[in-house]
Specification:
This protein is of the alpha+beta class. Helices cover 62% and strands 12% of the residues. The strands form three sheets. Strands 5-6-7-9-8 form a five-stranded mixed beta sheet. A two-stranded antiparallel ribbon has the order 1-2. Strand 5 (293-300), helix 11 and strand 6 form a beta-alpha-beta unit. Helix 1 runs antiparallel to helix 2 and helix 3 packs antiparallel against helix 4. The two termini are 49 Å apart.
Length: 420
């Protein structure tokens, strides 16, 4: 990126600065005038300015305050001269004090290093209210000096203080809402990725066990061939065993890394309803991507905390995604979750094309698929075998029932295995 102004200001930040200045100047024209005359105004400018600084911190707060103040004054001057035919000196005297507000406010945020207090809403709101009060006070005192206007009384200062507090905490509350929404979105994305990785780690673990068996068999073959004095063949068998062992070590490293990503954080609180809402939300988007009109329904008679959100997401997402794909253009998917005899049941019913009777005994086998691409190549067919593996890990069972229109998956898992 291009560096400007002694390396402290970048080209991309220049765009942010210009947008901040222009949006603030425009918003400042939406105003409330609490005192007599048009000179002293309360607008949305300070709200916009503060919010933009929090959302997209500028490279230089001082420069941002300076440029924003100049922009606000300039736009008001142009407005007066072009629309109202005002005199340049008079308009400048009238509007130039507004520069002080933005400069003083930005200077205050710079002094407290606003990035360090953004995670403390009450403290941030208090500091912002103080700086807004000081900024408004500086603006008015300067205005009084150049225009000899009437002094503002105690009641007016009290109004300035009240507005400063309300506007500051309004911005802090709005910023906190935006932050929480963004964190929730990121959490949903990470959980979705985690659930997919979790299913893959189960198969990787299974493959590692298989590799271990092959390694042992290869080494046993090496010993037998060596005993028979078949040197060339025994050497080849030993090399195969060594190569397989290297594959196992690589797999172990990959498995170790994936396991760290998929282990749930114990301080995160997830309820059963949170998991199901994530499944429905993700598959609504998937159905829209496939240009399908699918209605989702949820019946949940149990609610408790769970620390098994990753495996639950993995298996439910897999089944639901298959249901979305099985519905031609329009249909419905319903979830019914209930407890019976210390077992938690997940019933997922769709109105798709269903599974042929001859194939129902095979659907959980690796390699089974009914999906083919445009070239007629089959999909990998490991989706429902993932489901079977996850359910087994949770000591549960999964079954399938054919419906007149669609398919019903019934998953039963011991409640204690998923209740936190």
């Amino acid at each position: 990126m291009e560096k400007r102004m002694n390396g402290n200001f970048y080209k991309t930040d220049g765009v942010t600065l210009i947008l901040t200045a222009l949006l603030t100047a425009i918003a400042s024209e939406i105003k409330v005038v609490p005192f007599n005359g048009d000179a002293f105004r309360f607008g949305l400018g300070s709200i916009t300015f503060f919010l933009l600084i929090l959302v997209r911190p500028p490279a230089s707060l001082i420069l941002t305050g300076f440029v924003t103040g100049v922009t606000v004054v300039s736009i008001r001057l142009i407005e007066d001269l072009l629309l109202f035919g005002g005199q340049l000196f008079e308009s400048f005297s009238n509007h130039s004090p507004a520069f002080l507000f933005y400069f003083v406010f930005a200077l205050g945020l710079k002094c407290i290093q606003v990035e360090k207090v953004k995670t403390y809403p009450l403290l941030l709101g208090a500091w912002a209210a103080l700086f807004e009060f000081i900024g408004n006070g500086s603006e008015y005192l300067f205005r009084s000096l150049i225009s000899h206007s009437e002094n503002v009384g105690f009641r007016d200062w009290a109004l300035v203080s009240g507005v400063a507090i309300l506007r500051s905490y309004f911005v802090v509350g709005l910023y906190s809402t935006i932050t929480v929404s963004e964190q929730k979105r990121q959490m949903q994305e990470l959980l979705g990725i985690g659930s997919e990785l979790y299913a893959e780690t189960l198969y990787l673990q299974k493959s590692m066990n298989h590799i271990e068996q092959i390694t042992a068999s290869s080494h046993e073959l090496y010993r037998k061939l060596k005993k028979e004095n078949l040197r060339e063949l025994s050497t080849q068998a030993l090399l195969i065993a060594q190569e397989i062992h290297e594959v196992k070590k690589d797999s172990q490293r990959i498995y170790s890394g994936l396991s760290k990503l998929t282990n749930p954080k114990r301080n995160d609180i997830f309820y059963l309803s949170d998991v199901l809402e994530l499944v429905i939300s993700a598959n609504k988007k998937y159905s829209e991507l496939l240009q399908k009109n699918i209605h989702f329904q949820l019946s949940l008679s149990q609610q408790f905390e769970t620390d098994q959100q990753i495996p639950l997401l993995a298996l439910l997402n897999n089944i639901t995604a298959n249901a979305v794909e099985a519905i031609p253009k329009k249909g419905s998917i319903s979830f019914n979750v209930f407890e019976k005899s210390d077992m938690l049941y997940f019933e997922v019913e769709d109105t798709g094309e269903g599974i042929p009777e001859d194939d129902r005994a095979l659907i959980f086998e690796p390699g089974y698929t009914t999906k083919f691409n445009h070239a007629g190549v089959a999909a990998t067919g490991i989706g429902l075998s993932h489901v079977q593996e996850i359910v087994s890990q949770l000591e549960g069972q999964v079954a399938i029932e054919a419906l007149p229109t669609g398919t019903l998956f019934i998953i039963q898992i011991p409640t204690n295995n998923i209740r936190k």
